[in-house]
Amino acid sequence: MIHSRIAGTGSYLPEKILTNADLEKMVDTSDEWIRSRTGIERRHIAVDGQTTVDLAEQAARRAIEAAGITPAEVDFIAFGTTTPDLVFPNCGVLLQQRLGCRGVPAFSVETACAGFMYALSIADKYVRCGEAKRALVIGAETLSRMTDWSDRGTAVLFADGAGAVVLEPSAAPGVLSTHLHADGVYKDLLYCGSGVSRGFEPKLVITMSGNEVFKIAVTKLGQAVDEALAANGLTKEALDWLVPHQANIRIIQAMARRLDMPMEKVIVTVQEHGNTSAASVPLALDVAVRDGRIKRGELLLLEAFGGGFTWGSALVRY
Ligand code: UT7
């Protein structure tokens, strides 16, 4: 039986930094409020002209190098993003053109903050059935492009970045399971109201009922981590690392409590880049792989939750 395993990881944050002190000058907020309520200290913002695919290309090249392959050898691209460069071609195709792997399937999925989890789940299945051998999975966003910089409820949270992994076939299990969910009943709690078919509002902005999103995220993610462990016949003690969606330190702490994991076993990068949506999980994963915390053979639980609502988990033997 063929499994998929993570062969390499990569990430990229744009150079321009927006601090909490900078935001204090833009909206009625404070560094103290942002740190204590979200854990965020700074975020990275793409400069004018720097696009989602620009960020993704940097992350992808790093993941490809870490996997020990060349860009031309990539044979499948699954790209999670809610902030595409163009309506079409999709970001997967735009990235494929830059990498030079012509002819291979390339697509994007727009499942908000769960975009990487959905892309990973699809790519895993293509590798496992033998149709892809070097699958590039991306999560990349330029959320700053649709942030309402006059809304303190969202402006302090969202930002830009990219993360990537390369999946390859393996005799031993790497990705043990993925579980995806969506519930459109909650669409009005977190959304961007503009679209091609519906028409563009005067402002292209994220609208969020933060506190309600918070509570449902904690509940749904809690169920998702239980589901991932149960599906694999594992208990929480088996986990080496939690690699959570980096939206809010308090949601991350709630997941750690549910799993009885000390925060030393939880990868937290939200302070560095805020909520980068689909980029958040692969970004955090890459940071912890590169700084040597996550080692080969360890068991990781990845999870993310976003607009829709959409959410999902992956249990991974790294
Ligand atoms: O990744 C996709 C999923 N998204 C998320 O996971 C985000 C989930 N939500 C959250 O992270 C949190 O709900 C927020 C960080 C957005 C807000 O934190 P909260 O603890 O839920 O605060 P709240 O919305 O209940 O607001 C508490 C107070 C309010 O003031 P009053 O009514 O008590 O006077 C807000 O107006 O905090 C106020 N407030 C702020 N104050 C200073 C809201 N935003 C700010 C701000 N600075 N930026």
For the structure shown, list the relevant keywords.
318 residues; alpha/beta; four-stranded mixed beta sheet; 10 helices; 32% helix; 25% strand; binds oxa(dethia)-CoA
Structural class designation: alpha/beta
Percent of residues in helices: 25-40%
**Largest pleated sheet:** 5 strands, mixed
Percentage of residues in DSSP E strands: 15-25%
What Rg is obtained from the alpha carbons, in whole angstroms?
A: 18 Å
Q: Quickly count the helices.
A: 10
**SSE series:** EEHHEHEHEHEHEEEEHEHHHEE
What strand line-up does the widest sheet have? 1-7-6-4-5
Heteromolecules bound: oxa(dethia)-CoA
Overall shape: globular
Secondary structure: number of strands: 13
Mean pLDDT: 97
How far is the first residue's CA from the last residue's CA? 18 Å
Low-confidence stretches: none
